[in-house]
Design a protein that fits this description.
three-stranded mixed sheet, 3 domains, alpha+beta
């Protein structure tokens, strides 16, 4: 007998709850962060579901979407990936009526006035998607540019990072055991100046995460996170963002993360994963935007330089012609 939508959704959400704790196990968390970095536009729940079913997935779409948008077909025998898609529905309900001061409005018989109102009920439905590796057909267009790999790209990427950070970033001589820090008092970031390119980028993303998530010195004590949780969030975001841009980093902190998660309850773990996923996605979006802006500025600058060179050549040619003959020629 075919399962109902409600039963299928329950099975998926049950798997999801098991998966949340499982991804924190040493060795699996790193793989989850890599999956999350590739699907940073998806919800935390769906990135976990993708990771649990096909951790090596890189690009997913529905059966018909592969055919209509990419001219590719799902290969015979491939098993789909089950994720959850929003499926809200409208419902008419009877509601009590209140005045502007939230006092109940009564009719002439002293009964509460009511009216019917249409509301939207949030709900989800299971959908099946497939990874690009499960399809064949026309080649895909280039999906992303490589942002690191040589000095010029590193320089531009560093500028994009600095522009994406609300906190100003400075480079200074710091002790060898300190890569950087976020100063809560003046809202600034300081990074050690003698590090490698990869270490510098990771340190900046780590401290930018602190500046975005942990600037809470004025928050009530019950809302403040402990230092271990803050470090786990910053390190996880840094790893995920670096993975998205193809920057290989170490995995030294994953054993620490596994021990941190051991005594946490499921709601706490889920909340941290949601925070990490949202922050990594937002930071990637901001860096991409700043990168594109810098590329446009560089293109405009190159165009201006090209025009300047042509004008200079024109002036030199005109000067030579003027010496040879009194007649002036137009060159542009």
């Amino acid at each position: 007998m075919q399962k109902s939508t409600k039963e299928r959704v329950k099975e998926i959400t049950d798997d999801l709850e098991k998966g949340i704790r499982e991804v924190f196990e040493s060795g699996r968390y790193e793989k989850y962060l890599r999956t999350m970095s590739r699907f940073h536009g998806y919800s935390m729940n769906n990135t976990i579901l993708i990771h649990l079913q096909k951790p090596d997935a890189t690009l997913i779409a529905g059966y018909r979407a592969w055919q209509e948008k990419f001219h590719r077909n799902v290969m015979k025998g491939e098993k789909g990936i089950q994720i959850l898609a929003p499926a809200p529905f409208k419902k008419t309900v009877t509601m009590d009526v209140y005045d502007a001061h939230h006092n109940p409005i009564m009719d002439i018989d002293g009964n509460q006035v009511q009216r019917e109102q249409e509301i939207v009920i949030p709900a989800f439905k299971p959908v099946t998607v497939f990874d690009v590796s499960q399809t064949d057909g026309e080649p895909l267009p280039m999906l992303a540019k490589t942002l690191v790999g040589n000095v010029e790209q590193y320089s531009t990427f560093l500028q994009a990072l600095q522009r994406a950070s609300a906190a100003p970033i400075a480079f200074e001589d710091l002790p060898s055991n300190l890569d950087g820090f976020f100063n809560l008092k003046d809202k600034s970031i300081t990074i050690r100046s003698d590090m490698s390119e990869v270490q510098t980028v990771c340190a900046i993303i780590h401290e930018v995460t602190h500046s975005r998530l942990h600037d809470n010195k004025d928050a009530p004590p019950e809302e403040r996170k402990d230092s271990r949780t803050m470090e786990v969030e910053a390190e996880s975001v840094a790893y995920a963002v670096c993975a998205y841009y193809g920057i290989e980093t170490g995995e030294n902190s994953f054993g620490y993360i596994a021990s941190w998660s051991k005594d946490k309850e499921l709601p706490e773990l889920k909340k941290s994963l949601e925070t990490i996923s949202r922050t990594a996605s937002d930071l990637i979006t901001d860096i991409d935007r700043e990168w594109e802006t810098l590329e446009k500025l560089q293109t405009t600058s190159l165009d201006a330089a090209s025009v300047s060179d042509r004008l200079e050549q024109c002036r030199k040619m005109t000067a030579v012609q003027n010496r040879a003959t009194p007649r002036k020629e137009a060159c542009l």
